[in-house]
Amino acid sequence: EFLEKIAMDDEGNIREEVFDENVRAFLGGDNPVNKDIAKTLHSEKSKQFAVLNNGVTIIAPEIAIQSNTKVMHLTNYQIINGCQTTNTLYEHYADLNDNVELVVKFIESQDTDVAIEIVTATNNQSAVENEAFYALREKARLIQKFFDIQRNDEAKEKLFFERRENEYRNKSIQTTKIYDIKELARCFISVFKLRPHDASRYVKKVLNTSDIVFDDKDNECAYHCAAYICYKFNTLINGRKNDAPKYNRLRWHIAMLYPWVVFGKVETPDPSSKKITAYCDKVLKTLLNEEYIENFKTCQRIIDSIEMPTDDQIKRGKYTSELKEAAEKFLNK
Questions:
Q1: Which of 119-123, 166-170, 298-302 comes out lowest in average pLDDT?
Q2: CA-closest candidate to residue 24, choices 136, 185, 106, 172
Q3: Rounded CA gap, 228 and 243, in Å?
Q4: Nearest to 7 by CA among 81, 79, 72
Q5: Which of 96, 171, 220, 252: disulfide with 199, CB 3.0–4.6 Å?
Q6: What is the mean pLDDT of residues 95-117?
Q7: Is the pTM of this model over 0.85?
Q8: What burial class does residue 249 get, using C-beta atoms within 10 Å of its C-beta: 0-12 exposed, 13-18 middle, 19+ buried?
Q9: Cβ contacts of residue 185 below 8 Å, gap of 6+?
Q10: Abortive phage infection protein C-terminal domain: which residues (predicted)?
Q11: Regarding beta strands 160-162 and 72-75, do their DSSP bridges make them parallel or antiparallel, or are they unpaired?
């Protein structure tokens, strides 16, 4: 009944939209936790499913119960905990019987912060990395919408921000065009926070301990611009063009340098400033034609102007500072 009334539409398909508030999309039947759920459903333990499974939590801004029939009416509901359970039950729908029971919690609240608190506290049936909870931030949603809008521009490469883990699974999208929370954070802190050394090593620590990414004040265009820079250099690396593979270890530093080369000076506006839109527009314009190839060559020459760093030095702020000084000298010639 839960599947038919809550999780499935009139045509018998899973309602993917009811999982938008979940930190992850369905991880698939091969996921170890989902395999265990399926195994339980097909064993003698299926009668104990309600106590062996964490259940499902549903939140809605309005819940009405008819006193005479006990029928519950939900408005704009979201399954905020139990995406894996729900989808696994759906995949084995034909094999279910009345012995399989499920604990479903209903919460009425119009406060989105309540949903975030519940997801953070309860979504631990499959191990969730702390950075995954950035997906619940409003800024992350706005950035994803910005990426969606940018894909309507025929002149631009179609990049995707995977806000929720596995969101674009089975969508036939080139993996190099998909940027998850961690990868987008790497791009952003390299270009706009001048911390390519952290992108090379400490991005998980950055996400877990600070608010330098996905800040409410940030302009969404900065995230798209940073990803676009990284994507275009990766195409050169993967295509083995212009010696780009030689600088693969320094790709985050290359990303930091690129806008400076475009503007001919070492200057990076705050991602929340009024200047940022025009700044990103100019950078993107160069990435839409062959100009970007020469710009990346210049980035490589700046790197070559000082001693090539060791793997350990790449991960240190000292090298980033030295590279910034080298860029200032090179561009002021």
A1: 119-123
A2: 136
A3: 20
A4: 79
A5: 252
A6: 82
A7: no
A8: middle
A9: 131, 134, 199, 203, 206, 207, 213, 214
A10: 19-308
A11: unpaired
